[in-house]
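A reminder from the course coordinator: this example appears on the midterm review sheet, so study it carefully.

Given structure:
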């Protein structure tokens, strides 16, 4: 009898331990304290989380916002990057404290949403050769595609109640630009997409046409488990209230979205065409300049296109000349003897960019440092330093590109430039130039790979070794001969 009782006891204990083991991941994560991690679910995308390139940190509007929240808590962040359609399931199992993935609140008892901090809209997009849609009635009998697991797909399902003949197709990829590329290739007729993503995509695919907005603007918020740690939720609410009443949120939005609407679609289409037809003639020169200055060749190419449309003989009425449109004084200072020689001009311009970037104080972070460098390239370091001094006098942050974009145009107004030794300058043009270069650089980063000469060198060594091995094998009396190229 006693043996039987012991057997039941150990069996129940084993079952209890097993249940505890299986449900450990179901428990809400505790509030993180200094030295611990804030765990956040997100999904890949330009507004959510993008892995950094070689030596670059990750980015994304949501990524940066979460980092600021973690700094306020005094903890580090661990991002769990998962497919968008898995976020809710994983959060329900308490794999993270919260989710930040450009998410829209919805009636749901399983989750809580923070206060909205931004809003977005759902927009129909088509190829320019497709039939436009100017009213909901025109969707009768049409097929509209939306990405898997997206807010737009749910919006189409709701719209189908109103328009039963509407056909809905779920696009298999969750990658934001894959659906836009399918529309650009006319593989999809109509698509419903996020307006912010469309603004980005139209600069990569100029044949896209934005159409009807479906529904009202949608709020963007963070998602929490309904039974999650209440202190994390409450601190997040206070954090969002604070940034909404300051310029922080506007600066983040400007960093990722502020430059997207400056170029006309015809300008983008022309640029993409010249990437294929003109850039190959000069690409090696830009890559050579990168080797010498450590400036990304695609950024140098973007500057050169903004300055001269990649025309090495370009000359302006003010006397600046060449691919990088250097002044005679700057060319002399850099040792450029012939501004119309593309090799000299590109290398000289690259060295000038490096010099300007290095002259900014260490307190200026990236990417603000690069955009400020572009403005200084346009109006000269004297005028730009005067604008930084003016910013301090006006109570603006001279290390912030968001703030400097407001200050630079003041250089053309007498009540401001009369106080400066440098005199007047077309600071507004410097802002436009920098923002255009930002967009050209974004496009080049999408269409052109980075230049990594060390990788190419190592690949060449491996190729030479393999080639030598094949030669040795072919000379061993086996009768095999290396195939002639």
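Designed residues:
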């Amino acid at each position: 009898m006693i043996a039987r009782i012991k057997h039941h006891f150990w069996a129940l204990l084993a079952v209890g331990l097993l249940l505890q083991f299986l449900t450990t991941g179901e428990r809400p994560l505790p509030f993180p304290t200094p030295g611990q991690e804030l765990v956040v679910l997100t999904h890949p995308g330009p507004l959510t989380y993008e892995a950094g390139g070689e030596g670059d940190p990750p980015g994304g509007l949501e990524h940066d916002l979460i980092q600021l929240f973690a700094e306020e808590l005094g903890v580090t962040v661990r991002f769990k990057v998962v497919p968008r359609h898995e976020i809710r399931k994983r959060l329900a199992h308490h794999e993270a404290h919260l989710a930040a993935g450009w998410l829209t609140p919805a009636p749901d008892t399983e989750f809580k949403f923070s206060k909205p901090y931004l809003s977005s809209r759902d927009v129909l997009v088509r190829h320019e050769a497709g039939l436009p849609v100017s009213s909901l009635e025109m969707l009768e009998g049409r097929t509209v595609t939306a990405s898997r697991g997206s807010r737009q797909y749910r919006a189409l399902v709701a719209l189908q109640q109103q328009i039963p003949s509407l056909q809905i197709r779920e696009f298999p990829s969750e990658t934001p630009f894959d659906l836009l590329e399918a529309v650009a290739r006319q593989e999809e007729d109509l698509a419903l997409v996020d307006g912010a993503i469309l603004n980005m995509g139209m600069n990569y695919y100029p044949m896209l046409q934005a159409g009807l907005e479906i529904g009202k603007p949608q709020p963007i918020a963070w998602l929490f488990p309904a039974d999650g740690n209440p202190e994390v939720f409450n601190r997040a609410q206070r954090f969002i209230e604070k940034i909404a009443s300051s310029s922080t949120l506007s600066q983040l939005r400007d960093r990722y979205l502020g430059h997207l609407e400056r170029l006309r679609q015809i300008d983008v289409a022309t640029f993409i065409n010249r990437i294929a037809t003109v850039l190959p003639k000069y690409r090696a020169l830009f890559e050579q300049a990168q080797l010498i200055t450590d400036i990304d060749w695609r950024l140098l190419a973007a500057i050169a296109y903004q300055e001269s449309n990649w025309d090495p003989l370009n000359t302006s009425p003010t006397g600046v000349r060449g691919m990088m449109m250097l002044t005679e004084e700057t060319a002399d200072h850099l040792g450029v003897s012939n501004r119309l020689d593309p090799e000299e001009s590109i290398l000289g311009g690259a060295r000038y960019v490096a010099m300007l970037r290095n002259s900014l104080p260490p307190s200026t972070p990236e990417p603000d440092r690069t955009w400020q460098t572009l403005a200084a390239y346009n109006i000269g370091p004297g005028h730009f330093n005067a604008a930084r001094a003016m910013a301090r006098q006006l109570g603006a942050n001279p290390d912030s590109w968001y703030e400097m974009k407001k200050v630079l145009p003041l250089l053309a107004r007498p009540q401001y430039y009369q106080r400066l030794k440098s005199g007047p300058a077309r600071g507004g043009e410097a802002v436009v130039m920098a923002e255009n270069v930002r967009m050209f650089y974004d496009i080049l980063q999408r269409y052109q790979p980075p230049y990594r000469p060390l990788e190419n060198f190592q690949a060449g060594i491996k190729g030479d070794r393999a080639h030598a091995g094949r030669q040795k094998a072919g000379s061993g009396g086996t009768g095999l001969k290396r195939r002639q190229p």
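Residues 89 and 483 are 55 Å apart (CA to CA). The chain has 19 helices and nine strands.
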